Structure formats: C-alpha cells, structure tokens
Amino acid sequence: MIDLMLVDDLALLRKGLVRMIEADHDLQVVRQASNGQEAVTMLREMKAAAQPLPRVILMDVRMPVMDGISATAVIAKEFPDIRTLILTTYDEDDYAFTGLHAGAYGFLLKDVSTRDLHRAIHAVADGDAVLTPRITAELINRDRAYARHKISDPQARQQLDKLTPRECEIAGLIAQGLSNQEIAQRLTLEITSVRRYVSRILDKTGLRDRTQIVITWFQAGMSD
C-alpha cells in the first residue's frame, strides 16, 4: 500500500483527486493540506510523533501562505525519503524546471487521466521521474545544447567514472528517458535488479534522482 498526501488549496479538487487515486486499491490518501506550510507542519508533527510518513505527495503549485515549489524544497531537504509529484493546471517550463530543481520527482497536469495518474504515482514511488512528454523533451534538449556548446564538465565525468560498465549502460538508458520497466525489457533483467542498479548509481554518484542522472550524463558529454 502506498500512502499519499494531497496538498491543494481547493477542497473540492482534493475530494475529486481522492476518488481518482483510491480507485487503485494499492493507493490511499492518508493526509491532506491546503497549502505548503500546512503540509510541512503536518509532516514535522508526524515525524515528532513517530507516525508513518506518506511515501508520495501530490503538490499543487499556486497556493497561499507557502507555494508548492517552496514546500517541495523544504520537504526534499527535511524528508528525503518522501517523493513529491507536482500536479498543476499550468503547462509552463518555469514551473517544471523550478519544481525539479527544488526536489520534485515529477510534473503532471491536473487533466491527467485516472490511469496515467495511477501509473505516475507508482512510478514515482519506485524512484522513477515522471514528466509530461513536452517537458521531458525540453529537459533533454536543454542538456544536449549544454553538451554541444560547452566543454564537458570534468566533475560530471568523474561522477560517472565511478560506475561499472553495466551501471554506465543503465545510466545511459535513463538519460534516454527509459523507465525501470523499459530498461528491464531492453536488457532482459528483472525489474528488481534494475532498481538495485539505479540505487547503486545514485549512491556512487551522489545524485539525488533520475533527473539529475540525465543532466549529469549530458554535462559529461556522454551523449556524443
């Protein structure tokens, strides 16, 4: 069972999201908050009381008191095991890239289908990054441009040099935008093996998540 927190200032929207989410019997909404500050305070109180924390947070962007981007940054720092998925009405690059930089694991629009929402939550819970197709393409294009117009970053190259050939191969597939399931199918591996490889890649490189693997891959000039 994956426990979730919903953070949105619109109670009616939260109510609708609960219905969508809990149509998947492996998902349950355990906490709700109406703004980022309320969410952070709630998490701190849960931690102090030794209560189980949510595994995934669905976070709105525009909210009073504390917006979703600011809250995501605080949560990523204080609760690194919680994965935040930005859910917004606005398909704008600034929200996506600022959210990812703050520590979000994904970015989806609020008109997402129930099926795609379920898939995204499961993927984020498993450590995958989830982005809209346009944002994924823009992220990759930006980093390819970085690699084309600048000398490869020695620090990024050093981070990847720590990897074994198999880990480097998997990092390259992540940079291509493949999910754990797609990598498992491509390399004829068990999904659990791929997850272990991804965990080792993150541990060895000191990177936070899959999005940073993509960025580091292109900054190191590995796409050439």
From TrEMBL:
Question: Which PROSITE patterns does the entry mention?
Answer: HTH_LUXR_1, HTH_LUXR_2, RESPONSE_REGULATORY
Tell me where in this chain the HTH luxR-type domain is found.
156-221
Domain Response regulatory per the UniProt entry, residue ranges: 3-125
The 4-aspartylphosphate modification is found at 60
Alphabetical list of SUPFAM superfamilies matching this protein: C-terminal effector domain of the bipartite response regulators, CheY-like
- Identify the domain of life: Bacteria
A Pfam family found in this protein is: GerE
Keywords, comma-separated and alphabetical: DNA-binding, Phosphoprotein, Transcription, Transcription regulation
Spell out the molecular function terms from Gene Ontology.
DNA binding
GO process annotations (BP) = phosphorelay signal transduction system; regulation of DNA-templated transcription
What name has this protein been given in UniProt? Response regulator transcription factor
